[in-house]
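Closing statement on the phosphoenolpyruvate sub-project.
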Amino acid sequence: MRRPIVAGNWKMHGSRATVSDLLAGIQEGMAVIRNVEVIVCPPFVYLDQAASLLSETPIALGGQNLCQVPGQGAYTGEISGDMLRDLGCGFVIVGHSERRNIYGESDDLVAAKAIVAHQAGLIPVFCVGELLEERESGETEKVVGRQLDALLETDEGLAAMQHSVIAYEPVWAIGTGKTATPEQAQEVHAFIRQRLAQASRDLAEKTRILYGGSVKPGNAAELFGMADIDGGLIGGASLKAADFLAICRAADS
Ligand code: PEP
């Protein structure tokens, strides 16, 4: 049985004051959430503050990105996996579509980041997903398959995948209010699981595959009810405690 995950990607939002308020609000509603792994991913500069506020809670912390180089070094503006671990992170998002499409992160770079994250002791939340034009030209599986293969094709990558969470996020559904239908999402999740099964049946069975893209309290239960959807990566709705908690409750089984 795969334990569901609901992860909030706060992106470049917040201030010291709102981080405090939002985390207090989420903590208030956690008592009724029994079987969901809840993760928040604040901006780097608020991780330390969030780690102190979350220290006595079951809520886990994640980074939104990391450098593909381990340890320390002359990489201005970058944050390493070891630094994220040092601050108390257990997870890190890699290959979010905003990193791929705004900052030009290639499949190989994203795979390198997942490997370094794993080697630093973090669980990568490995994001894949197609653009609208790719879906419209029938290339969804080709694109998602290629993104996955970048990690699955090497021994180090496969080792990282053994300890990763995957997030399927159709780019056309992120922050647009357009959600994939549960059937559309399930179709791609099943494809992802099948691709993992080519590497190992055990990997396919155990890997949690989250859906992301305009998940809200009103559509979460239907999405999470699909056979291969094991929770969600939530953007906009993770910035309101009440909405985020409602999505966590929808994932609770
Ligand atoms: C995301 O950015 O990962 C995301 C899913 O955003 P939203 O929920 O706002 O579509």
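The chain has one domain: 5-29+36-252. With this model delivered, the sub-project is considered complete and its resources will be redirected to Aim 3.
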